[in-house]
Design goal:
Blueprint (H helix, E strand, L loop, with lengths): L9 E4 L2 E3 L7 E4 L2 E3 L6 E8 L2 E2 L8 E8 L12 E8 L12 E8 L12 E8 L12 E8 L7 E2 L18 E2 L14 H7 L7
């Protein structure tokens, strides 16, 4: 997985900044970010502990962007593109990524309960040490996607092909998926009862 490029030529701290006016190669720390008209692309920017007054960022292309310690709950990133991006210790409760394309993207130590990533295309994507309770992954296309040490209780993978997906290091008691599309999914032995129940199979001691 490729990491975001992080060569910043300027730092802005504790200022009010318009999203449309952010220049490439900028580090923003403790800033108030407002968005009036949106923009098509943002590149090589890091948002560190920034506050956002607008939640609409759909159909935006994010290249080499890092969000660190930001509250992005209920944001709309639908049909956006993320290349070489990281979300580090961010809050993304109910955040929407419907129909988005993610390549070389990591969510690290994030709170993502009820997040909606349905109909997304994910290539070389990592979810690590993140809370994904009741998150939605309907009809996603996974390629080299990993879930490492995550909470996936009641996460919904319905209509998604799970070949090559490994959930064995993550935790769940109940999970939703389409049994006919689960071939190639890797799980632990103690996770098997949840999958077997969907197949109408009873596991006896």
């Amino acid at each position: 997985m490729k990491k975001p490029s992080a060569h910043y030529t300027q730092t802005i701290q504790s200022e009010y900044v318009l999203f449309e006016e952010i220049e490439d190669n900028t580090l923003l720390i403790d800033c108030e970010i407002d968005c009036q008209f949106g923009r098509k692309q943002i590149q090589e920017v890091k948002f560190e502990n920034c506050r956002f007054s607008t939640v609409e960022y759909k159909q935006t292309e994010f290249l080499d962007v890092i969000f660190q310690k930001c509250d992005l709950s209920n944001f709309n990133f639908n049909k956006s593109i993320f290349y070489r991006c990281e979300f580090q210790t961010c809050k993304l409760l109910g955040t929407q990524f419907i129909g988005s394309t993610c390549k070389d993207v990591s969510w690290l130590n994030c709170l993502m309960n009820y997040a909606i990533l349905s109909e997304g295309k994910m290539n070389q994507v990592c979810f690590r040490e993140s809370q994904l309770e009741e998150a939605f992954f309907h009809n996603c296309k996974f390629q080299q996607t990993s879930f490492e040490l995550c909470n996936l209780q009641l996460a919904d993978f319905s209509e998604s092909k799970l070949k090559g997906v490994d959930l064995s290091s993550s935790d769940f008691v109940d999970i939703k998926l389409t049994p006919s599309l689960a071939k190639g999914l890797s799980i632990r032995f103690d996770q098997a009862p949840a999958i077997a129940a969907m197949l109408g199979v009873t596991i006896k001691n």
